[in-house]
Amino acid sequence: MVGADRRAIPVEELTLEDAAAELEALAREIAEHDRLYYRESAPRISDAEYDALRRRNEEIEARFPELVREDSPSFRVGAAPAEGFRKVVHARPMLSLQNAFEEDDVREFVRRVRRFLGLDEAEPVELVAEPKIDGLSVTLRYEEGRLVLGATRGDGTEGEDVTANLRTLRDVPRKLKGDAPAVVEVRGEVYMRHDEFRAMNEQREKEGLPLYANPRNSASGSLRQLDPSVTARRKLRFFAYSWGELSANVAETHWEFLERLKAWGFHVNPIARLCRDVEEAIAFYRTISEQRAELEYDIDGVVYKVNRLDWQERLGMVSRAPRWAIAHKFPAEQVETVLKDIQIQVGRTGALTPVAILEPVTVGGVVVSRATLHNEDEIARKDVRIGDRVVIQRAGDVIPQVVSVVEKARPADASPFVFPDHCPACGSLATRTINPATGQEDVVRRCTGGLICPAQAIERLRHFVSRQAFDIEGLGRKHIAAFWQDGLIRGPGDIFRLHERKADLIVREGWGEQSAAKLLEAIERRRRIPLDRFIYALGIRQVGESTARLLARHYGSLEAFVEAVEAAGDPESEAWRELVAIDQIGPSVASDLTAFFAEPHNREVVEDLRRELEAVEPLPATKESALSGKTLVFTGTMESMTRGEAKARAESLGAKVAGSVSRKTDYVIVGADAGSKAAKARELGVTVLSEQEWLDLARG
Ligand code: IVH
User: Fold this and answer.
1) CB within 6 Å of ligand 1 — which residues?
2) Which of 106, 315, 356, 415 minimizes the number of CB atoms within 10 Å of its CB?
3) Cα-based distances in Å from 661 to 401, 550, 631
4) Each residue of 294-346: pLDDT tens digit?
């Protein structure tokens, strides 16, 4: 989007989505102009034009304070950090944590650990309980005891090199004390204390600068400054709690590891506690919940970690979170406000979702003016009416929710909300289907307009170009809606034929030769796309990123995937059996897949895309091993590890684990008392391995 188009819409008329998209674009554009000006001394626009961009950014932020971005230009003077940091791939991925909200979730976590390791009841499982600091995680790499690299977490795989800034933190040692292995990566949380946060915001207010919403945003903004002297003035702090790469073992337990961190010169949260069992850990949580308000920094829960490192090693991780740790979160902050309206949004699968429009209110440090109401039944159950005072909450990054209604404050004329039975976008009937298996109504009401519903079509396209899918830069919601309306893009394949309509594109309001060329380039770059992204982009129900990855890894090519899923439409087929045998894909996901491909229009979309682009095999999840790409089946009882552990080990080595033996199975591993699967393997001529042979292979 260029300036003319943007200025065409007065700030007062922007929708929330438009405003968010525009702020994102402005952050990027202003950063680019800063870079050109400060770094290359080659500005491309006049000072007046530049000022206009910044003013527009400020005006939108003033109207939508909840949309102020961490990388907002308002938080920055001078050159552009967004573009300015080198990307670094982490030596070991930076993991996230599974969450627990109830005490029983924590007890269940420890039971899972026990089951996985095959421990008996008498064996104690010690846990280290640490406050969960609400800041941002970073990794610090030391070679021969010297700090050589400091990086943000980023997406867990790749972060930004902020070494110069991290060096300015007094809690970050430049040199490790005592003896340390040649390579040590220390991980922990950068945060800002309350008093320093308040002082900083007071200063900003005096200077007429926008305020940071909370200490977390402020810590993140302060660390991502291109000028380290700005970071230095912000008084950031650091608690160490974990490690990445280590060239030698330094401890046998996590508790001992924390001691080593202290000896090297790091701050370790002094409240952390070694607990003998889960009940002691939960008692610690209760104590901390009470002390929370008096702490000098924000915490949003307690992290429990299995103390023994050999157990941590065996437990490994599952979908980017360790099996040996869990975050026990505090309940979300709740506040009251007035519900001004209920709007109905139509999603890509036709689902009608009610959204609460609220009197803006601050909760958890940010101003909230919209919240989700989930679905029709939720509105009825809570009897939410327009005009009501409602309690809302916001937990972490999740969308704010309406929790309950303050009934005694209900206006006399408030009437029960009538959920529409027609789609607000296309007028088609909206129905709730009956699940034939349970005889129950689906909770979601869906538009039956299918292909004729513009809202669904636009949402599908939006999903298709979204960051996790095709990630086409410069093709935002507004453009998609406008292009759809004018027939430039009606289906995903049209995106790749947009170059044929370049003449129509450049004459559009707000478009020109340059911006059109940029968009078309961004599209061209996606003619080769990893298969998992392709599958995810199709927007098949229940097929999220991780399921798409499983499918891509299992089938390896688009041709094989399409052929298999089409064939699986027959529930008697071998293809169906293979599909449901993929670990973590049950009959429900499998039916959604086959239903998608049973629809001729969907098949056409996929065929059309196949003519336009090439889906390439995704990168393997792990490095090559003797087991990469192999399909294994475990049967019988093993002595050295539980079934769960064996499966996890196999998957971490790039193998697939199936539930039943077929001709596609590479190895069947038989433990004691193996039954029919071992016999079937022999019958099909599949290689059978003993437990010991499997262990040798798994050790690589
Ligand atoms: S351990 C492999 N310990 O929480 C272990 N994380 O929700 C990874 N966090 O990305 C994290 N305090 O930014 C750990 N004492 C603590 C923590 C902590 C805060 C953050 C960290 C992580 C996020 C996961």
Assistant:
1) 95-97, 130, 132-133, 137, 189, 241-242, 303, 322, 325, 327
2) 415
3) 46, 19, 9
4) 999 999 999 999 999 999 999 998 878 999 999 999 988 889 999 999 999 99
CA 132–ligand 1 middle distance (angstroms): 6
User: Per residue in 591-627, pLDDT tens?
Assistant: 999 999 999 999 999 999 999 999 998 665 445 677 8
Name which of 333, 335, 386, 397 is nearest 360 in CA terms.
335
- Compute, in angstroms, the gap from residue 305 CA to the centroid of ligand 1: 10
Strands 389-394 and 667-670: unpaired
Instruction: List active site positions.
Output: 132
| Percentage of residues of the chain with pLDDT beyond 90 | 58
- Of the CATH numbers 1.10.357.10, 2.40.30.110, 1.25.40.10, 1.10.150.20, which one belongs to the domain with range 530-616? 1.10.150.20
16 CA distance to ligand 1 middle (Å)? 32
Q: For the sheet with 99-100, list strands across it.
A: 99-100, 325-329, 299-306, 127-133, 273-275
pTM exceeds 0.85: no
Residue bearing the CA closest to ligand 1, atom 12: 132
DSSP state of 428: -
- Which tokens is 324 given? 């040996």
Topology of 334-409 in CATH?
Answer: OB fold (Dihydrolipoamide Acetyltransferase, E2P) (2.40.50)
Instruction: From 133, 139, 269, 323, give the residue whose CB has the most ligand 1 atoms within 8 Å, as the site to mutate.
Output: 133
In angstroms, what is the span from residue 97 Cα to ligand 1's centroid? 7
Of the candidates 486, 357, 331, the one whose C-alpha atom is nearest the C-alpha of residue 417 is 357
The CATH number corresponding to 3-76 among 1.10.3720.10, 1.10.287.610, 3.60.140.10, 2.60.40.740 equals 1.10.287.610
Q: Whose CA is nearest to atom 13 of ligand 1?
A: 137
541 compared with 284, residue with greater pLDDT: 284
Q: Check residue 5 and give its pLDDT.
A: 52
